[in-house]
């Protein structure tokens, strides 16, 4: 399945709520496919449902895509604003014979269906106006319906699903334009995709049946049919359709949980697509490798442990300045207080140590807590158990010894080791009270990493506060 036109993909969400993780993956697939081929990635807001579409939801979608790092070409297109163009195309189809006026009332349609059910026939409505002489048309409201083929088959040539065949007797003459002159969603989508020059439609496989009906609109207008690629939906870890009962399903929830955008891109790319055995990769590799044949036919499953693994990989590889920006964005996303300049100056030196172990941004900040707090350090019960009269005496002796050393790791370790040996203690016995006074807890980075990050004055002051 080839298409010689420059690649143009699109993401077309309905602004009725937050950006779902499934929508985010669809957007990512479209973005990767276009960007990997020097093409365009367009954004269309399908806001024809005026009762449910809100500016707030549109803003949430744009914010989610921006956070994920997916840039789009041009301004987002409003489907609602194209309603006159949609109506114009419906009238063109009326003129070329691929559509017709239907004057059947809702009551007549329902009566047809009731009779069909009673007789065991298909309830697909067969309009009596399909082949009516225009001279018999009444002066009454009407809809414009597609004149769909009644016999034979419609084959959707799908880049993921393969050839999918639909019997035309199962596809009705769908309404293109309602009696009030407004277009239906199914019709508007086709007109928009054509006018935007979309060459590849990558979307969820819940739209597969729609593709058969929409393909008939393309054919009715004599337009090129884009390449369809219908991707399986995402399921929860239990194999059932993803819903809120599985936990986080909105992209904003994953952002608030502290997964970096780069990690989410990597993880979502592998959710239903594969490139050999490659699990961990960057954007450049993803753009180079991503292709439609690599998308599987089975539903993908969310896997929290795999996401954590991917997240830890990307955090460990981030440049320190990039990681500081990620932390600032995370704090802003969660409404937390921004880091002060002092906190940043303490955090930066220890980032190489922290990022090697952290799986998420809050986990990293938790280990960096010692650098965030101010004196006097509050000590929790578990850490406080390491502070007795003996350990306080050791701290007092160590405080004096450290005043005269150069503040580098080797000298700090040597001085601490010497104090321990004079007391017949190993380094571990001294580390516990040091963790308590420097961080207020027992689970911390290395005491020497903390000392270097805090600096000599702050370290000695914290030790002095609890020395005996």
Automatic annotation (TrEMBL):
Residues spanned by motif 'KMSKS' region: 241-245
Transmembrane recorded as keyword: no
Glutamyl/glutaminyl-tRNA synthetase class Ib catalytic domain: residues covered: 7-308
Protein name listed in UniProt: Glutamate--tRNA ligase
Catalyzed reactions: tRNA(Glu) + L-glutamate + ATP = L-glutamyl-tRNA(Glu) + AMP + diphosphate
EC numbers, comma separated: 6.1.1.17
Known partners and oligomeric status: Monomer.
Functional summary from the UniProt entry: Catalyzes the attachment of glutamate to tRNA(Glu) in a two-step reaction: glutamate is first activated by ATP to form Glu-AMP and then transferred to the acceptor end of tRNA(Glu).
Motif ('HIGH' region): 13-23
Protein's cellular compartments: Cytoplasm
Keyword annotations from UniProtKB, A to Z: Aminoacyl-tRNA synthetase, ATP-binding, Cytoplasm, Ligase, Nucleotide-binding, Protein biosynthesis
